[in-house]
Design a protein that fits this description.
CATH architecture of the largest domain: 3-Layer(aba) Sandwich
CATH superfamily of the largest domain: Malonyl-Coenzyme A Acyl Carrier Protein, domain 2
Radius of gyration: 18 Å
Largest sheet: 6 strands, mixed
Order of helices and strands: EHHHHEHHEHEEHEHEEHHEHEH
Distance between the termini: 6 Å
CATH class of the largest domain: Alpha Beta
Strand content: 15-25%
Number of strands: 10
Number of helices: 13
Strand order of the largest sheet: 8-7-2-1-9-10
CATH topology of the largest domain: Malonyl-Coenzyme A Acyl Carrier Protein, domain 2
Structural class: alpha/beta
Helix content: 40-55%
Number of domains: 2
């Protein structure tokens, strides 16, 4: 059995998502992230309402911290991965989990990234939408014919995310329906992530990446931008920079991991969206989701018994 931990990307964390972890030893990570960023991370995880958690900067920092707590609890319970990967924001959690970045440096990068992306979202109203039932080639052709919209995530067969200006999304949505897709579903995010519209955030992100210390990973780490395995720490600053305005190649990434012999995927973070994608991409793989302390207790023995 070859295990990969896959880390959740940005969504809107459920209000109070941190409450089950309040008495866990891994809660100390909340204090570490707060000390590094000057943010009240505990309040985000315990008391923030949905409207506050939709904010890009808040969502990214809260999700990053929550996923780190789950990861640490899994490792302390004896579940260590052979490989790690993350979807969009989740890639930064993967970098911390593999030792490429320290908790403090990872937190500072995520904080700067979230704040810079928030500013870019405010600069030009934009959004994202999931196109269901149309393959990526057809969605790409639609976007090529519409100004201001791009493929942002190739997630799984029949599940592609587009992003762009509001006018561009409307036009691309109508064109996608005409091409056979279901009505595109708007996502609860503040802007057009992984497109050129995030360009205004580049300088601030690059400054944070340049201030971080990078180490070689302790396990295999896979990248969104090229769907490839990388064993060098030094190259991750450039890959993390490129990820900002580049599409997430999640389908290709999982296919490459499958071809490399990874047969067990553990989703680390709230929900089971990534596990659902993996099921569609690699149906013969084993898949687990871990979001709560109870999940840690149930997933760990399953991994051991499967091995």
């Amino acid at each position: 059995m070859t295990i990969a931990f896959i880390f959740t990307g940005q969504g809107s964390p459920t209000p109070g998502a941190g409450a089950p972890w309040r008495d866990s030893p891994s809660w100390q990570l909340v204090d570490e992230v707060a000390a590094a960023t000057g943010s009240d991370v505990a309040r985000l995880l315990l008391d923030a309402d949905e409207s506050e958690l939709v904010d890009t900067a808040n969502a990214q920092l809260a999700t990053f911290t929550l996923c780190l707590m789950i990861w640490q609890s899994l490792v302390e319970a004896g579940s260590a991965p052979d490989h790690v990967a993350g979807h969009s924001l989740g890639e930064f959690t993967a970098l911390v989990s593999s030792g490429v970045l320290s908790v403090a440096d990872g937190a500072c990068v995520v904080s700067a990234r979230g704040q810079a992306m928030r500013a870019a979202c405010h600069a030009e109203p934009s959004g994202m939408a999931a196109v269901i039932g149309l393959e990526v080639e057809a969605v790409t052709a639609v976007c090529d014919d519409v100004q201001g919209v791009w493929v942002a995530n190739d997630n799984a067969p029949g599940q592609v995310v587009i992003a762009g200006t509001l006018a561009g999304l409307d036009a691309a949505g109508e064109a996608a329906k005409a091409a056979g897709a279901r009505r595109p579903m708007p996502l609860k995010v503040a802007g057009a992530f992984h497109t050129p519209l995030m360009g205004p955030a580049q300088a601030e992100l690059d400054a944070a990446l340049g201030a971080a210390a990078w180490a070689d990973p302790t396990c295999g780490v896979w990248a969104n931008v090229d769907a490839s395995l990388h064993s060098d720490g030094s190259g991750w600053a450039a890959r993390s920079s490129a990820q900002l305005c580049s599409p997430v190649r999640w389908r290709a990434e999982i296919l490459a991991m499958d071809a490399a012999g990874i047969d067990t995927f553990v989703e680390v973070g709230p929900g089971s969206v990534l596990s659902g994608m993996v099921k569609r991409i690699s149906p013969d793989s084993e898949r687990f989701s871990c979001a709560t302390p109870d999940d840690v207790g149930s997933v760990t023995p399953q991994l051991f018994s499967a091995g």
